[in-house]
Amino acid sequence: MALHTQQSISGFIASEPQQTVTENGDTRLYVRIGQPHFRRNEDGSFTELEPSFHDMVAYRATAERALTRFAKGDSFIAEGYTRTFPVERDGQVVEAEEFVAKKLGHDLARTNYDVYRGRRSIAAEREAPLRQVSTPEPKSAVANALGF
What is the distance between the alpha carbons of residues 101 and 81, in angstroms, rounded to a whole number? Predict the structure, then answer.
């Protein structure tokens, strides 16, 4: 069977998450997201550039869960697709773009958190005992952006 892939995007939540409801009654999440950018210098160091900002939406259960778990400033990774659509601005019809997140989570490289898995079977508890996770030392912005 072929490997199934989709588009992905990562960045940070740049606005407070907003909840709306679609015409069908489904929950919709809207956020502005930022993506950091860096330039590699000749000496091997990096210069942080201005971030770019984009729109991201999610629907139904993904939107409902994201609304309770995400806040402005959180780092995320999302899987989904880019959607373009016409909008009117200043009397002109232009193409707007948004990322539709089908799956959305915090970026493990930049976020510390605990996971609650609920009740598990006795066999699963014996095979995978609860482990304590230590908090990593803070990194520079460049190291974080590069995933180091």
Answer: 7
pLDDT in tens, 30-59: 999 999 999 999 999 999 999 999 999 999
> Could you report the per-residue pLDDT of 80-134, keeping only the tens digit for each?
999 999 999 999 999 999 999 999 999 999 999 888 888 876 665 566 555 555 5
Q: Are 17 and 28 in contact (CB under 8 A)?
A: no
CA 107 – CA 69 distance, rounded (Å)? 13
Total H helices, total E strands in the chain? 3, 6
Strands 92-106 and 46-59: parallel
Contacts of 63 (CB under 8 A, 6+ apart): 19, 26, 27, 28, 29, 57
CA 50-52-58 angle, to 5 degrees, is 150
pTM score, two decimals?
0.76
Residue appearing with tokens 């006795």: 122
H or E stretch covering 126: helix 122-127
